[in-house]
Amino acid sequence: MLLDISQEKLGDQLGLTFQQIQKYEKGMNRIGASRLYEMSRILGVGVDFFYEDMNGLAESANGSHVGGFAEDSEGDVVGFMKSREGIELNRAFASIDDPKVRRSVIELVRSLGPQEGAAK
């Protein structure tokens, strides 16, 4: 999702089913080095995209920086923003043009979550 390619499209380009891609994504099946290299080529990122990021952001083939799949030490917010729900929520929110509506959505979401200072 981060690179806007579906599991089905990636699978087609690798000669695999989307179910096999899901197994790779969920860690149910291991990915060999040659398959990992091929995935990085198709996605236009370096192989380091799939590993813990030790030196900041990974660099894509066109020179732009993108985050990898590794868990981020910045906490739950970064992890959520990388999740399917986080990406969908971010895209939907970004499509709202009216600043007042955006503010209302933020207030709604805050009201649905735990109150500050309340036990979790």
- Helix coverage percent of residues? 40-55%
Q: Tell me the structural class.
A: mainly alpha
The backbone outline, from C-alpha atoms, is elongated
Distance between the termini: 30 Å
Largest pleated sheet: 2 strands, antiparallel
The radius of gyration computed from the alpha-carbon positions, rounded to a whole number of angstroms, is 18 Å
Tell me the number of helical segments per DSSP (H or I, 4 or more residues long).
Answer: 6
**DSSP strand content:** under 5%
Mean pLDDT: 76
General description of the model:
With 120 residues, the chain is mainly alpha-helical. The protein has helices spanning 7-14, 18-26, 33-43, 76-82, 84-94, 99-112; strands at 58-59, 65-66. The model has no long low-confidence stretch (mean pLDDT 76).
Keywords:
two-stranded antiparallel sheet, 6 helices
Brief characterization of the structure:
By secondary structure, the chain is mainly alpha-helical. The chain is built from 6 helices and 2 strands; from the N terminus they run H-H-H-E-E-H-H-H.
